[in-house]
Amino acid sequence: MAKETQRTAPTRTRCGWAEMSQGDDLELYVRYHDREWGVPLHNDRRIFEHLCLEVMQAGLSWLTVLRKRENFRKAFADFDPARVARFDKRRVERLLADAGIIRNRLKVEAVIANARAFLRVRKEFGTFSAYIWRFVGDRTVVNRRRTLAELPARTKLSDALSKDLKARGFKFVGSTICYAHMQATGLVNDHLVSCFRWRELAGRRPPASP
Q1: Domain for residue 20, yes or no?
Q2: What is the domain range of residue 51?
């Protein structure tokens, strides 16, 4: 009987940052990179979730936030902006006592303020998605980065988004945070061209609102 030929799955090339951890953290990062980062997002609640997580990440590593993501979802009503907007001072104190999240008063209060601003934007534009995708002409900006060193911390687009969000009452929305949000939610495709996800996502439009 002829020996079976062993076949190994082809190795996928990813953006280098996705494989800079070990153990469970590596699995967490790779899953986030492969399934979420850069996928055009058009669901308001999920967009709000990313905005909240990026507020919490300010000054910290994204890995710290990913580890606590499920705790954040429980603490912030699964990121329902209408519910978060109703959080009062008593709820803030409860959140600051929750060891499962990042207990920073300014950030917690910013998330609540942002929920209220989010609802105002949604009332004006119909959806928050319709508002934010205007900044890229309703189509993903497909970049052609070849190395991690080419990834910018901010761009003119993120400067414009930051300025507009601040004018609308949002907190913790500097240009760097805004660009991270644009990368995460697919307004820009910043996967390296060598990454298997760059080709899969290149030119992809955001899905229709549910």
Answers
A1: no
A2: 38-201
Does 159 map to a domain? Answer: yes
Catalytic option among 29, 37, 49, 54: 54
Per-residue pLDDT tens over the stretch 160-208: 999 999 999 999 999 999 999 999 999 999 999 999 999 999 855 444 4
The single residue of 17, 36, 62, 109 carrying the catalytic annotation is 62
Q: Which of 1-15, 35-49, 73-87, 145-159 has the lowest mean pLDDT?
A: 1-15
- 32 is annotated as an active-site residue: yes
Instruction: Quickly state the pLDDT bin for 118 (edges 50, 70, 90).
Output: very high
Phi and psi angles of residue 110, each rounded to the nearest 5 degrees, phi first: -65, -40
Q: Would you state the pLDDT for residue 204?
A: 55
How far, in Å, CA of 42 to CA of 208, rounded? Answer: 7
Q: Domain count for the chain, please give it.
A: 1
What value, to the nearest 5°, has the Cα angle with vertex 123 and ends 126 and 125? 40
Q: Has 62 been annotated as catalytic?
A: yes
Q: Cα–Cα distances in Å, from 167 out to 51, 117, 174, 192?
A: 16, 10, 12, 33
Active site residue 93: no
Q: What is the pTM assigned to this prediction?
A: 0.89
For residue 118, being part of any structural domain is answered with yes
**Which of 17, 32, 36, 109 is the catalytic position?**
32
List alpha helices for 126-204, DSSP H: 128-133, 156-167, 175-184, 196-201
Q: Is residue 117 part of a domain?
A: yes
Task: Provide the token pair at 6.
Answer: 């062993």
- State the pLDDT at residue 20: 84
